[in-house]
Design goal:
The chain is mostly helical. The chain contains 27 helices and twelve strands.
């Protein structure tokens, strides 16, 4: 019996021995898995999982060290062009204004775009612009002759007028040198007003009153702003603290209070500083507007850019109507209008009608788009003297002239993405000392997911700041062109935290 028992138990022993051998072999995975080197990532339990291949995304982490994560194929309309641990694939990019699809998006590659027919890519900006069209020679000659004759008649008429009414004309010139003492036409002035003599400012010098309007707007809507942000003020407070816009004691007190009380405390801090404080508060609200839907909608309807253009619409129409093509081409080159709108406006012979079409388009789209129109006008302001003088009196635009909008809105998303590629090494050098402020901003602005931020921080702890920064840039690039622009905006806002960024932005 003992003999038979031993004989029957020997297969069980063999099976257990085999299993033990397999376990030992599994424990002898490559050192890369234990160290979580290339091709692996580490999960909170301390286990190193193999990355999902391109064209797939992570569904679930692996169950054992060195094993592959559970991956699934990207769905239609999404892609993943690298090994990854992302929980979802990136949306396929859409071609920009004036572009068409050259290579369709696949699960492992983003969309490739090219310029449409009769458009060519500008060598400097990378934008697809219409090719120069040549008018019929006969029409050009006739228009030139007509213009010459009309000019000659106007000059002759003016000469007779001066000769017959010389004394009256001299008196008129004399009066024009004296500042007016009444303001019966003030309703026709822009969002700037003429300073009176008692303030000792020369006639014609303009000062913006948009800051007063902004202060009043904030005070009148204080309760609404408290309610909109008070549901979760963390993003708002983090923005203020990250840019050192409020003292530490105010930030800490606001964090301790929480909810609407924290927002009220911060708002009272800025309002107590008068117009300058309200300007800073407004800029901060504008920066975090997309984190609070109701705040964003409110700014879209009551923002400074929209108010400025709406109040000056009639004068802008007159100034732009002289030659809308300068503005039209600028908007097209920036991708601010569609091909259809460009073609429609280009085909309108009446300058006033063309200008009205453009103004109406941007006013209907709200404050954000009106701000883009102002930046386009700023780029061609030398073509429109009236516009240049008016823009110089807009206080909020002067504030923004030191911000990222002026720089970044000069380039398309494609060009900004290339600028990351060409300046990656400089970015590594500028950011590698401390990624915390930037990662915080990327998380608040939803440029990177919470998991991606944790992944970068973990890589920094294991492999150093340089590799972590490189990986962070790759994650941003993988999320598409709109995120790339937001990434540059975050860098701009944090340039005080990273002094070496100045050299990079100087290259713009």
């Amino acid at each position: 019996m003992n003999f038979m028992t031993k004989r029957r138990s020997s297969p069980g022993l063999a099976l257990r021995g085999t299993l033990l051998l397999m376990v030992c072999c599994a424990l002898q995975e490559p050192s890369a898995a234990k160290e979580c080197g290339d091709g692996f990532y580490k999960i909170p339990r301390g286990v190193c999982c193999r990355l999902c291949p391109a064209g797939t995304y992570k569904v679930k982490d692996c169950i054992a060290d060195g094993r592959k994560a559970l991956c699934d194929l990207c769905s239609k309309g999404t892609y993943m062009d690298r090994d990854n641990q992302e929980e979802k694939c990136s949306w396929c990019s859409s071609c920009g204004s004036g572009e068409e699809v050259a290579v369709n998006c696949s699960v492992a590659q983003d969309t490739v775009c090219r310029c449409m027919e009769r458009l060519k890519r500008d060598g400097d900006s990378g934008i697809c612009l219409p090719e120069e069209t040549h008018s019929d020679t006969t029409v050009v000659v006739l228009v030139t002759i007509f213009g010459f004759v009309l000019t000659a008649l106007l000059v002759y008429t003016f000469y007779l007028n001066v000769k017959l009414k010389g004394s009256t004309f001299k008196k008129m010139l004399k009066r024009s040198d004296t500042p007016p003492t009444n303001y019966e036409h003030d309703e026709n002035l822009p969002l700037v007003h003429i300073m009176r003599n008692e303030h000792k400012v020369p006639y014609g010098v303009q000062r913006s009153n948009d800051s007063s309007d902004t202060m009043q707007l904030i005070q009148e809507n204080k309760e609404n702003i408290k309610a909109w942000i008070g549901t979760d003020p963390s993003a708002f407070l983090e923005h203020l603290n990250g840019l050192n816009l409020i003292p530490r004691r105010v930030h800490q007190a606001a964090v301790n209070k929480g909810g609407e009380e924290s927002v009220e405390l911060v708002m009272d801090h800025f309002i107590s500083q008068g117009e300058s404080g309200c300007e800073k508060l407004w800029d901060a609200l504008y920066s975090v507007r997309k984190q609070y839907v109701q705040l964003w909608k409110w700014i879209q309807k009551h923002g400074e850019a929209l108010r400025a253009i709406r109040d000056k619409e009639s004068d802008l129409k007159l100034w732009i109507s002289r030659d809308p093509n300068h503005l039209l081409l600028q908007l097209m080159s920036r991708g601010r209008i569609s091909n259809e709108l460009f073609t429609e406006a280009k085909g309108i012979r009446d300058g006033a009608e063309g200008a009205q079409l453009l103004l109406k388009y941007f006013i209907e789209r709200g404050n954000d788009d009106c701000l883009k129109l102002l930046f386009a006008l700023q780029a061609v302001q030398d073509r429109y003297p009236g516009v240049k003088e008016w823009l110089g009196g807009l206080g909020f635009l002067r504030r923004l002239s030191n911000k990222s909008h002026v720089v970044l809105n000069s380039y398309s998303d494609f060009v900004l993405r290339d600028k990351i590629r060409f300046n990656t090494r400089e970015l590594l050098m500028a950011l590698r000392d401390d990624l915390t402020p930037l990662l915080s901003q990327l998380q608040i602005r939803n440029i990177l997911t919470d998991n991606s931020v944790r992944e970068v921080k973990g890589m920094q702890a294991r492999q150093g700041s340089e590799k972590a920064t490189q990986h962070m840039v790759e994650l941003v690039m993988a999320r598409g062109r709109p995120r790339v622009k937001q990434f540059w905006e975050a860098l701009w806002d944090l340039r005080e935290s990273y002094p070496d960024l100045k050299d990079i932005f100087d290259k713009f």
